[in-house]
Amino acid sequence: MEFNQEVRKATDPIYKKISKVMPEIEWSVHAPYIHKINQLKKEKNAVILAHNYQTPEIYHGIADFSADSLALAVEASKTSADIIVMAGVHFMAETAKLMSPNKKVLLPDMKAGCSLSSSITGKDVRLLKEKYPGVPVVSYVNTSADVKAETDVCCTSANAVKIVNSLGVKKVIFFYQMIILLSMLLLKLMLK
User: Fold this and answer.
1) pTM > 0.85: yes or no
2) What is the pLDDT averaged over residues 83-105?
3) Fewer CB within 10 Å, N or C, the chain?
């Protein structure tokens, strides 16, 4: 693809947003692709959802929505687009599909994964439910659809304590990123 005058004109407003973090010579490589992708989005009635950790050319160049994983899934459910492209990992695309079942959800890199999400399976959850019958299962939203299907309620880092407290039980099976869980518990203890 060529970085010609048409591409330069169409992508110049985007480049102005990221010119402090990307040299012009590098932009000349990305700009033709950004231009073509933005054209294809219009033709196909597609949107691109980009997680916060995406590179500047994706985050600012082609993303229609940029946010954390749950906010992206919520945006997916609100859009009138027929196609949702998730610039993220598997569980994000699965969550977008769960919240937008009638839309086509695409994941550009099928190898894009998350260590947290892949650390537990639906089978693992079923085994724990057998071992602890009647104990509610709470999982972090950043888990696979397989795990969500076996979960009683999902939570985020912002609402985990509230969700667990709302269950009114003394025990829960809780799947969460350990460092976030420890931080939340420490904060809760400090606030008492």
Assistant:
1) no
2) 92
3) C
